[in-house]
Amino acid sequence: MGIHAVSVMLEALNRDAQHATIAKFIQNELDAEREKVALLHQQGSQQPELLREQGAQQFELLRQQQAAAGGSMHSRRPETL
Fold this sequence. Notes:
By secondary structure, this protein is mainly α. Helices cover 86% and strands 0% of the residues.
């Protein structure tokens, strides 16, 4: 809806209704922005935990790979020169 259409609609209302309509619009905009901020904060607080979990998984995978590589080396007979 364009600015002109909004002006025409507001002019059709009495002053109290204009103020109430504008206040409701502003409140709705603030609520939407607050929801966005809350979501960003939630995502930001979850990110360090996800990074810790990912690091722990990578560490465990590396440990398992090293254990498997070490085990396979010990199971082979030493070569004679």
